[in-house]
Amino acid sequence: MAGGAGRRQVTAKPSPAEILAASAEKGKSLLAALREYTYYIELTIQTVSQSDTITGKYYRFSQISFGQEGKRQERILENSSTLPDDVHIGTNAANNLTRVYQFIITPEIMSDYEFTYIGRERVDELNTYVFDVKPKIKLPDPDKSSDRYLRGRVWIDDQDMCVVKVAGEALPEQSAHRTPKFETFFQNVDQFWFPAFVAADDSVRMGKYSTRVVVKAHFTSYKRVTRKG
Question: 119 forms bridges with which residues in the sheet?
Fold first, then answer.
């Protein structure tokens, strides 16, 4: 994680509610700023046998940009899959994963989740506030809705008040399988903390069987776009 040098000291200790409120405002600004950037996502999902042999691989490399109205656009540059037939991971499933992986606190998110303050923890060179997170709304039918929610933990930098790490799993689980538990790390880009890297290595249920799944996602080459007009 970059961006920790030469940071000011904070003397007043904010309450958990104040931390979350500040983080939500930063998250709102971050998402607005992100619409001014292009970046790339390289996503790899592998199934692994008990003997540590890769039995299948889903790979997607794509460029993300945003239109004049702020609508997210994805240009898939490479897409392939050799996953077994009983492992149903395609574009929609991959999109669901990456949305939850990029969990950012905003005022809208606050109303959907319950946050429990855990304490302080150092993450790399950062001092952070730690919260457990779980959805407090009624979860949709996972076989009818693509919406997914985080159950896990978030780390908030104590000076920038931005989410710098997320760990957990996506809910609700589909009847045939669940998504692997994951960790996401964020990077400092032009004063904002954007997603940088996701890792997951977990045994998940695929139909009647458990399968080890390894997920890696890299978010790279953030570049601010100068719009005409």
Answer: 130
4 within a domain of the structure (yes/no): no
Residue 74 lies in a domain: yes
The DSSP code sequence of the chain is ----TTPPPP-S---HHHHHHHHHHHHHHHHHHHTTEEEEEEEEEEEE-TTS-EEEEEEEEEEEEE-TT--EEEEEEEEEE---TT----HHHHHHHHHHHT----HHHHTTEEEEEEEEEEETTEEEEEEEEEE-SPPPPTTT----EEEEEEEEETTT--EEEEEEEEESPPSSB-PPPEEEEEEEETTEEEEEEEEEEEEEEETTEEEEEEEEEEEEEEEE-----
**pLDDT tens across 201-227, in order?**
988 766 667 788 898 999 999 999 876
Structural domain total, the chain: 1
Show Cβ contacts of residue 184 under 8 Å, excluding neighbours closer than 6 positions. 101, 102, 103, 165, 166, 167, 195, 196, 197, 198
Residues spanned by the domain of 156: 16-223
Q: Tell me the pTM.
A: 0.84
Q: Which CA distances in Å does 39 have to 35, 36, 51, 192?
A: 10, 10, 36, 14
Residue 2 covered by a domain: no
Band (18; pLDDT cuts 50, 70, 90): very high
Question: Does any domain span residue 192?
Answer: yes
